[in-house]
Design goal:
There is one protein chain. The chain has 796 residues and is of the alpha/beta class. Helix content is 44%, strand content 14%. The chain has 25 helices and 22 strands. The strands form four sheets. It has an eight-stranded mixed sheet with strand order 13-21-18-20-17-14-15-16, sandwiched between helices. Helix 3 packs across helix 5 and helix 6 packs across helix 16. The protein starts with a helix and ends in a 10-residue tail after the last helix.
Length: 796
Amino acid sequence: MLAAGLTGAVLSGVLLWVANPPADAGPLAFVALIPLLVALRLTRRSGWGALFGFAAGLVYLGLLLRWLQLFGAIAEWPLVIVEAGFVAAFGALAAWMYRRLNGISAAFLVAAAWTATEWLRGFWPLGGFTWGGLGYAMHGVRPILPLASVTGVWGLTFAVVLVNALLVESGFALARGRSQSRRGRGVALAVAAPAVIAIAAVLLPVAIPVPMPSGRTLDVAVVQGSVPRALAGDRLLQTSEVAASHIALNRRLSSNPPDLAVWPENALADDPATDPALGRAVSDSVRATGSPTLIGAIRALPDGRYANQTLLYDGQGRIVGRYTKVHLVPFGEYVPLPALFGWTERFRQGNVDLVPGRALRVFHVDGVAVGTPICFENTFPDLFRRFVSMGAGVMVLTTNDSSYLLTEASREHTIFSQLRAVETGRWVVQAALSGESAFVDPTGRIVSRTGLFDRTILRGNVRVGSAQTLYVRFGDWFPQACALAVLLWAIWAAATNVRRRRAAGASRDGGAGADQSTPESAVSAAGSGSGKHMAPIAGGADPRVLVVLPTYEERATIATVLAQVTALGPNIDALVVDDNSPDGTAEVVAAMAEETPQVRLLRRGGKGGLASAYLAGFGVGIRDGYDVIVEMDADLSHRPEDLPALVAGTTTYDLTIGSRYVPGGGVTNWSRARLALSKAGNTYVRALLRTPIRDATSGFRAYRREALIALVERGVHSEGYGFQIELVRSAHRLGLRVGEVPILFREREHGQSKISRAIVVEALAKVTAWGIEDRLDGVRDRRRGRRDSPKDLPQV
């Protein structure tokens, strides 16, 4: 089995490579995985599955990325091995799946597993690497391409793996029928159904309408000044020869100026704003045509590092905008984690260190919004689509692919642009230093392109778009759904395994190991816990309350929030924990604190995250002897008028949560989709953690001091939503009483939410891990008496 499995894995690796350039036999991808999947289905052992997957990935990516040899073995093989590790993870997971599933359901789950794994390697480690994604082999398979406008390239990856997996299931069904000498409708259906679904997966996407641009037409000229082959190995091209070539070639446009001229990445090796001679030459060239011009340049920074930028010149030759590349190439443009990887500097061929930009930017050219990702950035679907979500009607990619020489890497880079065009419904203009430059329409068709190392001007008309595809609106929802499906199945499979082992043990012991305890006591919808009561707060008097308000750029609302909170009573103080807000939030609070003793300010040196801000505030509240410590947002999304009910809840509960989803609670100014997503997330938390709390992600809550001491001592390890959920879980496991009171949540009207997609993903992952941990550790047993006990909590 080992030899046959490795042979199948190697064959799959070779076939996947042939599906990509230079052979570019894209349709072959629909059968390329069959040898590997057959091996995984037969072995059903995760260890061997990992080995087979690693072998397939090593062969496939080793062949596909062999152009990395231009930069030395240290650039090629560590990357290939790391990326092959993801295929190994898929192999282990798929073999485990095949041990429990077969048929069409197995095919769909295996496709989801590959898609989730490929998506994961697209952002981790070190920002991710997407080269070799199976969906890119579909760039020339016209019927399936429209699917990318809905799911991104990830849907194409899913379809490729699904077709392979369905054909495997069809083949196994046929083999079973023959071996058992069976005929008839059942066998025919088992063979035909997967094949029919596979055909549908390839052909049905052609019916998906891709929104076509309907705005004005823009005449664009790409100035491909090229580079002498002797300089092609220098990726930053710090020479005046390349700049001179573009300056001279651009002047040819003066007799027939375009609406927009584009010079590629690294067309200038210096900043024309700081090099007077270069600045004059570039400005004169642009002024001669009178056309707005995008120019790639390298800018030296005071600290000795550099920035990779696209400059926007107006028709008068003046710089009117800059965009700095935000997603750099690890080890190529910078060395990540210098303490760990500093030794790699000797292999970087003298390349300088670049500094990433802080934010994406859309340029406005004669009323048209233009997005300008730089080189590596167009290999990341979500980053690229963010330009369009910011309003870009045309996308212009500038790149320097000269160091790839005559390899297929430049062609593969154009394939990325093809998929980005379909995903976003935008024309993509690719301007490459030495080729290939190209115009790609929103259906993914290459309208025109240049050859490699041609010194030429590529010109074409592009139409400005305004409609948003579903992928632009919702981003990477599809691979996230695949990951969630795989995680839920894994939880179910692990729990089923535990139950089976326990049942088997009970059977061997003659029933002695069976669960003979009484059912758990019912818990009211309003709260949960052990039912143990703590001492009354401050002997029944009005409790001393500290409201902790983390802030970062909340100047517009903080004064209103503080005034309304402190007006609720002399026993209520407010502590603002400010993370060095650049908008002067802390100064507003400091001025109020001088006038109002109830207002306090804790300054921090920089953005430390929501969890650490709350923990810092908790520490102050515990140290200074407050009876109740409250979490509250500073943006008016939490209404101060709901605070008294929240504090009153602490006479009954150790943790009182302001809930949007209990009777009387609600949300305003949210879309239906966002509200449904929030409710679904809380339902997921409730199901996995087995807690009756309906709004575990709410950040408006009140803690009794002794309960908070116990929770903090237990440790907190999450951010954002995960932080809120973790405290609910810890309170539940400690046997504390947790309850909910209704609040009305208002969407913020000022500023932007600090909760990022990464924080949401972290919360989802942690909830899943906690759910698995609870089940495997026997959470039911803990609830019947072996749960962490609250008896040692301090009494106040």
